[in-house]
């Protein structure tokens, strides 16, 4: 099967991808993404609840990378090397935006950073031009590595997640050259078929444990850093980062972190009355439930109702 194909395509011949309003855009664009992957031989599944993963895709490919982008082995051996196929799995987080002044503005929160390297950010420009759409397919590990390798402003530093709307406005399209850049760095390596090649690379699945460790290292390097933003001087930034490194070194293993949590809970029990402590636990469990279900699955009135119930119990 030839790899001479167009990707992405509009699978819905009677509509334009940019015609949908914000009330139904999320569902329509996720269907657009789903149909494009189905046409390339991927099995596509929709999670029961929205936890930051919009689609799960699976495909059987040659472990040596011989499988073409628009084919799947489906129980057959690789026709080139006779290897038994391996199933690869990817978790897609879709973010769709219309270009404004040729800028693709999107938001990532701290909970969007996963350490599973099979987690994929799929940025979907549904109206790059009148008749053209673009996918940016970026594995989380490569996304984190990009900021480390290119010495970009760190969007994952604590102040970045706690001030403003967290929107990133550095991804720009040049209509004259049909090129995309993050700042001054070429992003066409993540675009459409180039992104597909990274997505279908089975080396991640074959070395998953080590790839998870490396992704965690990148995430820690970016998240465990304080950014001065516009509020502080470089001296303050350096001082806080030195203090962070010293304190974090005390809790470098999962066992030490769990022990710290136990100490915090013990301290709260000792300093709070029983009613206050139980109330804190209820609120914490409620917040975890909302995050597990997904904010899009729970409307504002339902959240207010549950909070009122908790307050009445208190």
Would you spell out the secondary-structure blueprint of this structure?
Blueprint: H1 25-38, E1 43-45, E2 55-61, E3 86-97, E4 103-107, E5 119-129, E6 132-139, H2 140-149, H3 158-162, E7 167-174, E8 179-182, E9 185-186, H4 192-199, H5 203-206, H6 208-223, H7 234-248, H8 254-271, H9 274-293, H10 300-313
Parallel strand pairs: 3-5
Antiparallel strand pairs: 1-2, 2-3, 4-7, 5-6, 7-8, 8-9
Helix pairs in contact: 2-6, 9-10
Oligomer: single chain
State the helix count: 10
Strand element count: 9
Radius of gyration: 22 Å
**Termini Cα gap:** 65 Å
- Give the biggest sheet: 5 strands, mixed
Mean pLDDT, to the nearest integer, reads: 83
Low-confidence stretches: 160-165
Percent in strands: 15-25%
Order of helices and strands: HEEEEEEHHEEEHHHHHHH
State the main characteristics.
314 residues, alpha+beta, 2 domains, 5-stranded mixed β-sheet, 4-stranded antiparallel β-sheet, 10 helices, 39% helix, 19% strand, globular
